[in-house]
Amino acid sequence: MASTESRLFDVAQYTALGAWAALAVAPRTTVARAVTAATLVGCSGVYAFLIARGMTTEPMPEASLATLGGVRELLQGSGPATHAACWVHYLAFDLGMGLFEAELAGRLELPQAALWLSLPLTLMLGPIGLLTFCALAAGHAAWQGRLEDTVSGLLSSGRKRD
Questions:
Q1: What is the rounded distance in angstroms from the CA atom of residue 142 to the CA atom of residue 140?
Q2: Where are the beta strands (DSSP E) in 98-161?
Q3: Which InterPro entries match (predicted)?
Q4: Which of 3, 23, 64, 79 could lock 70 by a disulfide, CB 3.0 to 4.6 Å apart?
Q5: What angle do CA 53, 57, 59 make, to 5 degrees?
């Protein structure tokens, strides 16, 4: 029988993949965004449970998060709840970035093809996908002659400029 950690890992993994599929197919729809937001909330709950379980049932190695060696010691000395929590953490944050990209693409009126490039990169490589999206968004704004509509400018105003 699979452990609780293993089952939660599987649920989070496959649910997140479903949300990614919704974003890839129909990123501008309310349904895709709602599915993604609900998945983020669910992954956050799974993460909280796994962290609590790890802190109460697994040995906590004496390690520092200030060095790479310390992080390695922490992960090597921890158990399945902590390992699953680490992966769910990645799933949630990368999916959150994907939702951010879809939302901002709608405000910027980016072609869906831009998301077809950035979303798979965000799914697999996180920050590289976000960087790709930002470059595409800035290029699109420049192409449209709206250099003032950079990603940072749009984020700070919270609305599309006319």
A1: 5
A2: none
A3: ABA4-like
A4: 64
A5: 120
